Amino acid sequence: MKEDIIYNLKQVHQRIEDACRLSNRKSSDVQLLLATKTVSAEKIRIAIEAGETLIGENKMQELRDKESGLKDLNIERHFIGHLQTNKVKDVLKYASCIQSLDRLSLAEELDKQLLKENRSINVFIQINTSFEESKFGLAPTEVISFIKKIKKHKTLKIKGLMTIGLLDVEKEKMRPSLQLLREIRDQIYDAQIEDVTNLKLSMGMSQDLELAIAEGSNIVRVGTSIFGNRFLGKEIWNENIAE
Ligand SMILES: *Cc1c(COP(=O)(O)O)cnc(C)c1O
Asked: Which residues carry this modification: N6-(pyridoxal phosphate)lysine (predicted)?
């Protein structure tokens, strides 16, 4: 198990490097986030001890359950799953970044809790760039007005945009949803919203990380290629499965 994870990590880093080289990008511009849903603390530890620093969880329950098994390690935890408003307070105990900010009510709830705690948090805005009903995220056309609305919450530091691309066996079918995230970022820059600069793109997973890097990704979120299949026996990309 240990050898497999270490071997897989090397492979994934190699894929990232190769993709960066192909698109003339520096590999330091692309961070690897370990998507650790359903992965045990023990396995996560192997990857961290091999040099990884960033993990992403989809569920509050898993964040909490793995906390004790990982607390001696120096890791940055992002929340990458659908976040229910009633879980905000708990998630804020563990995560330093919410990558799945997808609606005003969530922004308001985060702000309310953060004001109480007198602190701020990094956020990525999740956008549904594949137009699939099974996915959460703002519609591309709503993004600019959304940013203008949440900007008043000084507790939310807008760090970037996140999407789950369309997965398909055909490579070229996957590209448009990744390309669109980059285009949305350009539109945001064109709109010149004060203090909204340097937005990172979080996109690319086991299947599409090369394409995502070619389209400008700064964070690839990889699970399966490192930890193996999750065997959930259900459509993993149906984000609507209740927590
Ligand atoms: C599971 C997950 C990933 C990783 O997907 P893999 O195909 O296992 O690499 C990335 N992003 C999100 C939001 C996820 O839930």
From this structure: 37
